[in-house]
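Q: Got a minute? One more chain.
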Amino acid sequence: MAAMEWRPFPRTVMKVLIVCTNHDTYPVKSSKTGVWLNELTHFYDVMAKRRIIMDIVSPLGGNVPVDERSLDLKDECNARYWEDPAFRQKLQNSLKPSAIDPTDYRLIYFAGGHGAMWDFPENNELQRLAKTVYERNGMVTAIAHGVCGLLNVRLSDGTLLIQDKYVTGYSKVEETLVSFVSEVPFYLEDKLKENGAHYTKAMIPFVEFIEMDERLITGQNSHSARKIASKALEELFEK
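A: Always. Here it is, folded:
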């Protein structure tokens, strides 16, 4: 008898979609905003170590600005990716939402930075991506100001994704402590509550804190990016 030809088992490719802002200005302050760098790099690094394929999308596509205050290259992870030409190329040439087929992704992650508060909440295309990933049993994740991208996501039954869900995000206290109250268009904490979410936060500002409600994982601030990524991978691969 001829030897049986060996074939590998079919394998579903795991893909993650990262959403970043295009917005880089404040109403009054002269400094530039954008994505908060370690909210992107720390999450990206955890995924990269598991050989996860990642795409970066932004509301307009093209260049993703980086908040000047977050460009901390003493952070080894920030420095490594900032100096990586392939990573920088991705940031400068992010995809448009219209170019994305959300059925290709098992997880979507909304990175933060103050810029997100201007171009995430009312973007119907981003809402469509999150809705589709979630309704296909994927995971929706977000961090800090990036959680504002979930405020108006409606599911097929008309309910808001965050309604009656436990979520966290950048707190009013944290916004006050960094002296950006006069710059932001709204308090994220208040909007989450107004839209029916059960908002939670750490007792101490600026410490790692995440909240998980089924397939929805949110992080309070930039210190939470690695934990979001690790928890998401645990849910996707180990359960």
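A: Helices lie at 37-49, 76-82, 85-92, 116-119, 124-135, 172-177, 188-194, 225-237.
Q: Perfect, thanks.
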